[in-house]
Structure formats: C-alpha cells, structure tokens
Specification:
Blueprint (H helix, E strand, L loop, with lengths): L8 E7 L7 H8 L8 E5 L8 H9 L5 E4 L9 H14 L3 E4 L13 H38 L15 H9 L5 H8 L3 H16 L1
Parallel strand pairs: 1-2, 1-3, 3-4
Length: about 210
C-alpha cells in the first residue's frame, strides 16, 4: 500500500501503425483484469514516437504502482530509448514493471542486489536484440527494393500520360522558340514537372 491508497495496476499497449492490430496486446492485458480506465494504448509511427497516451500514463503513475506491458519494445523505438524509459519508470517514478513476454523482467522479484543486476542485464540484452532486429528488417527491405529495381520493377504510382500536344511543345521549347514556363503552361503542368519529363523524353529519343 501507498499511504491510504491501494497500489494501482496499469497496462500499456502500442502499435506502430494505424493498420496494425492491437488485439494481441489487449487480450494479454485483459486477462490480467486491469481496469479499462487504467489501460492506455497508442497508435503511432515508430519514427516520430509522439505517444500522447504513454505520456498521460507516466503522469498518472505513482510510486509503487504496477505497470504491465506485453513486450519490452513497447517502451521505446530503440535500445537507448528503452533503457531510458525503464530508468524513468523504475528509478524516478518508483514503479514496478512486468514484461509479459519475458518473466525475468518483473521488478517485483529480486529486489536484492543480485536480482536487480540480473534484470538489468536481461533488459540490456533484450533491448539490443529488439533494436538489432529492426535494423535487420530495414536492411532486408532496402535490399529487396534494390533487387526488384535491378529487375525492372517500378515502385510508386505510374507517371501520368503526356498530354497530346507534348511532342510539339517539346520541339518548340528545345529549339528555343518558347520558354520553359510557356511550354509548361501549354502542357498544363508545373515547370519542374515539364523539365523532369523533358529529360526523360530526351533520353527516350536517344535510345
């Protein structure tokens, strides 16, 4: 107990995009009978990491409260962030954390020096593995895209077809009869787009 209050129990879930399903995390938290008002969830990109619900949760947490999370990477986007949030929660806020996917990371156990030491070691290893896996995923994605491009696969939306008058306008622009601004206006496109398409058009003619 904390003074006259009972220890409050909280749960936090985070999904990296709005399309990702959070059911797995919520089912795990629901089975612990955590009150709905004490369950916080963010649907945010891991890039900006602006997590309003997490910040609201941290403001509410008080010493000796208990926080459940499904996995360690819910605390941060990278190794350093995870360690920093763990420090803030356990040292500054003075709460206990239970990581459901890793029973060793339960600060209610091993309050003695050896227990704390082992938890810190496990946390650092898991944080490193989580960040390393994200790096590997990005690298595999980049390699896959590069391989696909090498095979002629195009990404993104296909370019809009050229207007019917483009060939005539291009010829007049190329010999200096009209300016690029005038040519772009006749083709109904921004000047930068006209020049970009002209470069591609020119290369196509040389092939």
């Amino acid at each position: 107990m904390k003074g006259d209050d009972f220890i409050a129990v909280y749960g936090y879930a985070r999904v990296s995009t709005k399309e990702q399903n959070e059911d797995r995390q919520f089912i795990a938290l629901h089975e612990l009978c955590i009150p709905e008002k004490n369950t916080f969830m963010d649907k945010q990109s891991g890039k900006d990491f602006e997590r309003p619900q997490y910040k609201k949760l941290v403001r509410r947490l008080k010493k000796d409260d208990l926080l459940y999370i499904k996995s360690i990477d819910r605390l941060g986007r990278n190794y350093g962030e995870i360690l920093e949030q763990w420090r803030v929660l356990t040292k500054e806020k003075g709460i206990d954390i239970v990581v459901l996917d890793m029973p060793l990371l339960d600060t209610r156990r091993g309050k003695e020096l050896m227990g704390t030491f082992l938890s810190d070691i496990v946390l650092q290893v898991l944080s490193f593995v989580a960040e390393n896996e994200r790096i590997n995923i990005r690298q595999r994605q980049a390699e896959g895209i590069a391989a696909a491009k090498a095979k002629g696969v195009r990404f993104g939306r296909p370019p809009r077809p050229l207007p019917e008058n483009y060939h005539d306008v291009y010829q007049r622009w190329e010999i200096g009869e009209i300016t690029g601004t005038a040519a772009a206006k006749e083709c109904g496109m921004p000047l930068s787009t006209f020049r970009y398409r002209a470069e591609i058009y020119k290369k196509g003619k040389l092939l």
